[in-house]
Amino acid sequence: MIPMARLPRPLSPSAIRRFRLVSQAISITFAVTWAGCQSETVNPVPTTTTATGPSSYAGKLDLEIRGTADVTLDIATSPETKVTITTTGAEAAHLLDDGTKLEGAGRFEPLPEAGSELYVAKLSLPPDAAGPCGAKNRSIALSLHHKKGASHFGGALTIYCGDEHYGIPARVLRLSGTLDPR
Amino acid sequence: MFRPMPSPSTQSRSQRRSKARIVAALGLTAALALSPETAEAAPEKYALSMFHFNVQYVAGGLRGFFTTPSPELDLSAEEVEDRIVRESFEPVLDLVAAHPTWGADIELQGYMLDVLDARHSDVLDKLRSLGKSGQIEIVSFHYSDQLFLAHSPEDWRRSAALNRATFERLDVPLSGTVFCQEGQAGPGMAQAMAENGYNTLVFPKNLFTYQHGEGAREPLYKFGDVAMLTYDGVSYDDGAAQIQTVFWFVDDGELFATAGFDPYIAEKFKKDPVEIAKREAELVDLENQGFSITTVGEYKKAIVGKVPLAAPPPLLDGTWQPGSTDGISRWLGGHGIWWPDERDNDVRTLASMAHRELMTAETAAKAAGMDVAAEIAAAFRMLALGEVSDASGINPFRGEIEYGIAHDAEALRIARDVIARAKDKLAKGAILVDTLTGSVTDPPASIADPPSMEPLFEVKVDAGDRATEVTWSDLGDGVSEVRVHFGAGDERLVSATFPGEMGDIVYTPGLTDAPVHAPRDAWAFDHFYLALSDGLIGLAPDRFVVKDQAWVHVAARITPTSGDVQFEDTTLPVGEESTWVFRVVEGDEAKAASVARALNILPEVVR
Question: Is the reported ipTM for this assembly greater than 0.90?
């Protein structure tokens, strides 16, 4: 294991260019089990209930890096989860405009054999004729993964044109950041 | 996959390499022209190429690449894709089209055809026309530029099927030649190629050299039931046949027409007519010296029967620039330039979870009599995109990392949605799904924790300031579980080393489902990283370790001088804890393969 100085994120094209050249020169090659569902397992290891998770999560996630999504997952340890999301800066005009509020029922999907959990929801917005979906409804899927023991959440708001929450999406909007247990 | 950019004031590495190749070809030709013997023999001369295009070069687009927002540089995924097509791809097509006697190989993913179909139908028409005329061999082995050597063969099969269907739907001829994203290549590809209508693998020269050192290569190898060739030192002369072979371009196709600038450099990534003209002139010169500028397929046809079909030396799974990326480790635990944002293990384990869940969903739906083919296909497509190599290497920036996680999470959600509906239809609160046998039954009423056990051996753990704990559980029948817990800390670099014995390297190559033996002492390298698509690697003749890929999916480091196997991650996020889970199997390799399959490929799951 070779220590390496933490690298800053680039500030400008010229800065990043200089950094890349320096990087080239110095040759950067430096080289729980969750509990909550007693019956879920992957063969052959059983997973048992030993702890209880928080009842809800809330916070502001980054949306497509520069935008934000205010996310609330209520009653998060129940299979049924109430999901509220308000988005800004998705850069997805007429698909998910600034200030759009998404609200609906979701599900908490534990992956105990993987020390993980997934929060999902199938949401929808009415047609926006000016957008890529035209006269079709916008079906929006929340898929948010969380590894037990980590504060980081990562996933997507995926927008499909039509009434189904699958197919070739109009956009897959990246979500990442930290949600706080409530 | 970000690569360091060239200095604007000097030639790029790519330019220099390409020019060097052409100059070398010209020099070789000149030298041969001075030789009376050679002149009399009139050698056959072939000039070949492999343009590796990747429309996911900046997966997810450039938004967020620079800290300061900039309308000119914050390009969306579609904008980056469009520039790749117009600034770098179309000029190559135009160059070849302008010379009807020329041929070239262009490698791309099926997803790129969908991009062309959606927004660049005129370019698709050009590609189709050149493909049908035989001037361009269109090479494609995967729908998305995914790290297929690291994931289940089933994920690749679905991807390859979608890829072929995309070619057929868009009436684009698919070549039998194979070259892959990151130059991925390995012995398991032979059978996969034969079963899917491919016939010739272009094996990366640097991966060959990394494993066996410098030296001349045979012009053509037998590769299972198909053929393989590489592209350095492959000219041939047995007295009767003289065949001169040069590859004038093997690189990211995006760099050819843009003076070496790649799509990350948005302000410079533009078609450069002067540079294209220079290259065109060099190729005209090459052609004037008697070289046939042709395709790999035509070349192979020409040399079969004139050269021996040689047996290749043993080869391991790897990627095309192992010297600079330390093999495949750069995608599986190794860090790049944007180190603070990297989380390789999260990216790859999430994809593995999604794979398991999709297999479970498909099985559960079948038992419930549901037709979910369209959903499952869409989810596997999503997973193929999520498994894109650039989400964890070479130098992924945050947007690419999150592209992988976003697509993998959505694939996982679709799978879970199907499973929930299957349970409803079956009127079951819980089901036991065996994806190997296809059975869906009631789960056991209760499942006991496995008993703890004394360690069979010491697992050496390094984790800097992080507290660590290693625990063992007895799963019965000679199978134990080892959990390595890394507490929260600042150290990004963690590792776990399993002691092994000298002897054959035993692992399951990518795209296969059974372990193979490779000699431990047949290599030029001092260490090598294996992806382990089913997680399995041998520690001794009757002992194996298997990664539980939902917890740990980093590369395994092996050496010719020790049987030890080290798993290491240099991208564990600061402040986050992590647990790695492994199975240790005492028994023969068939038993170990069965454990690996049941864990990572075809699991039995209660949902």
Answer: yes
